[in-house]
Automatic annotation (TrEMBL):
It comes from the Eukaryota. One of its GO terms (biological process) is RNA modification. PPR repeats lie at residues 41-75, 142-176. It holds the Pfam family PPR. It comes from Noccaea caerulescens. This is Pentatricopeptide repeat-containing protein. Keywords: Repeat.
């Protein structure tokens, strides 16, 4: 019998799961010690669940989760994002709410990884208020969760919230990435916010992202839609020189 705490066994299990060899994976899995509820016993369960999700087998992932609970094994912050993704794929809003309640009971709903998945799920259903409420409860926000929320605001036309959110993000000293720039620049283009767009251009230069493919296009679009054709032409000429 192989102990559930065996790192080697978990690695072999992961190899089978990633390769899609679920038969061999299942045989190895049931040789592990699944009856213990220590934190180490969650690893093989997470490997199986995440593999089901990656293969698009959402129902199987959820079924395996409930089997895990029957064994007395508690989910962790790596379990919930996979399960939430499964519920989104199945268009199962009740399942998402159930998982949030479970995460909340374990004090994990405001973890940045779990919250990011929940926020994204709420936005898929157009529940922007629920997403925003959860977002503001998260104390430790990284660039990823900011991007999820900012893109959600932009998707549903809450452009003012994107601008305010970006300002708050900068005040929290979170460095924007390409996803952030593209989101906020698209809002600047829609609202003709040339001053903010120019500030973003400067920040992109300082960040070394000015000539990143998608940002170049976003900057051109922002200048053009804002009526600043001279700036658009200057940027285009700089881009052309950089490409040659």
């Amino acid at each position: 019998r192989i102990s559930g705490e065996s790192y080697t066994a978990a690695k072999i299990l992961g190899m089978y799961a990633i390769s899609g060899s679920f038969s061999d994976c299942g045989k190895m899995f049931y040789r592990l010690d699944l009856h213990r509820s220590s934190s180490s016993s969650i690893r093989p369960w997470n490997l199986i669940i995440s593999s089901f999700v990656r293969m698009g087998l959402s129902n199987q992932a959820l079924s395996f989760y409930f089997k895990m609970l029957c064994y007395g094994v508690s989910p962790d912050v790596s379990t919930f994002p996979c399960l939430i993704k499964s519920c989104v794929a199945l268009k199962n809003l009740r399942g998402i709410e159930f998982l949030r309640d479970k995460a909340s009971s374990l004090g994990m709903d405001c973890n940045e990884f779990v919250a990011s998945s929940l926020i994204n799920a709420y936005l898929e259903y157009g529940k922007i208020d629920a997403a925003s409420h959860l977002f503001h409860r998260v104390s430790k926000k990284d660039c990823v969760i900011w991007n999820v929320m900012l893109n959600g605001y932009a998707k549903y036309g809450a452009f003012g919230s994107v601008v305010k959110g970006f300002s708050a993000m900068r005040m929290d000293e979170i460095s924007p990435n390409a996803v952030t720039f593209n989101c906020v620049l698209s809002v600047c283009a829609s609202m003709s916010l040339i001053d903010l767009g120019a500030q973003l251009h400067g920040l992109a230069v300082v960040s070394g992202l000015e000539f990143e493919g998608s940002i170049k296009n976003s900057l051109l679009s922002m200048y053009s839609k804002s009526g600043s054709f001279d700036d658009a032409c200057k940027l285009f000429r700089m881009m052309s020189r950089g490409d040659t």
